[in-house]
Amino acid sequence: xxxxxETAQPTSEPLAALPAWHALEAHAASVRDAHMRDLxxxxxxxxxxxxxxxxxxxxxxxxxxxxxxxxxxxMELAHARHVETARxxxxxxxxxNTTENRAVMxxxxxxxxxxxxxxxxVDVMPEVRAxxxxxxxxxxxxxxxxxxxxxxKPIRHIVNIGIxxxxxxxxxxxxxxxxxxxxxxxxxxxxxxxxxxxxDALSGLDPxxxxxxxxxxxxxxxxxxxxALAAREWLTTALGDGAVAKHFAAVSTNVAAAVQFGLNPDAxxxxxxxxxxxxxxxxxxxxxxxLACGYECFDQLLAGGEAMDRHFETAxxxxxxxxxLALIGIWYVNFFNMPAQAILPYDHRLxxxxxxxxxxxxxxxxxxxxxxxxxxxxxxxxxxxxxGGSDSQHSFFxxxxxxxxxxxxxxxxxxxxxxxxxxxxLLSNAFAQTEALMMxxxxxxxxxxxxxxxxxxxxxxxxxxxxxxxxxxxxxxYEHKVFVQGLIWGVNSFDQWGVELGKxxxxxxxxxLRGDAAASTKGRDGSTVGLxxxxxxxxxxxx
Length: 543
Ligand code: F6P
Known about the structure:
543 residues, alpha/beta, Rossmann fold, six-stranded mixed sheet, five-stranded parallel sheet, 46% helix, globular, binds 6-O-phosphono-beta-D-fructofuranose
């Protein structure tokens, strides 16, 4: 048995007590008023030194309020928090998700090399490869029409039913890769238990040509189960109970529950408890992507993720893209008191990226307790928001440019895609926005309301194009960035206990909302009781 790596939980010392932290505080005070305009004016090589190319990805982080000294001090902080040791512990399959006593092995899902990936000293790769083979086989059967619906019609509509990581990741990637979809295959995603979403998704669909994918790691999530039951009713009303086995597939760690739902075991794909929901797009949760784009396309997504893994695992911290971006984020959250981060894709195909990254980041690092159970002594995960850059320019960018609070931004764009004229327009806007945020505009002859302070930081991430490979790189980049930030803050980035209380309370409230005579709101607060009563009144059931 291999001994555990030296320290996967390097959190015993409060962060704000570290000498590296104090050094950063002192440094922040000395550079707080420096304007990026001047940093560029005094250093003609700033872009060359503060940008990074990795295959088809260029990251420009020169438009940040930092100097070479800042980066050096941030690297010292990373060393003080044992980032390299913890990184090795993740790749070694140690149970770094301490509150759930689980390994964190999404990197195994995109490992395409011969390398073994152990969890509890057992190589998981044989199982991972076997599921990949099954996904390939199943998707080829569906796409070729060998797997038909109950009446013999080929499947041409895929409806994914899931929520959270079983929805946002596959939906975002599927939208990003829309140009790779088989022309006659349509894909829809349903997450909301409001029946309106399922109704819209099913409108005009031929049940005989529709396949539902029920995606749920646990197969117990209330919203997903409610939608799966409603979908089954829609299907069986049209085609009878016997059709379920031909029109439903599922992905879950709870294979038995999926089979019990009436599914053909050939269409049930396992995943593992060492894959967190928000890190699961690389698993069989990617099935809708595979059905729409083909297995080769998915394999290229894995290849892009794998390339980023190799970089993250092997590059020294000061030449390591996820580490650099993580530390820049820490710099603003903790030393400039900037609590938010905007994600701004200037590419229609990437427009859902902010939603995926919002879950990835906020569910991972929205924590107030360290891995040791102590209350964190500094702010942690930022508020992530964003939207398609072009549309956002005409809505919330006003605040980004002139609001009193500064919000660091990530601009994401592709060099190629579509026609040249639209790319010219897109990229000129993306680059101009980063320039305006940084340079600002001021002068004695300019009215106050037309002035821009500037000095507002941004990173620009430029992909060669939006392809399975580059999308894979991009997602893995952010995953590792979030991991490194969690390490620095000392939180467990891989649990999500904060979502539990609301779920429990909803479960206990539901009988009262249904109007069950035995249900009571006794002991609940006045506001909640008032809201329940308003709902009951609307149903003609005064409490
Ligand atoms: O409630 C949060 C959460 O547990 C997410 O972390 C997860 O991605 C989502 O719910 C869906 O869970 P499941 O895949 O088990 O249905």
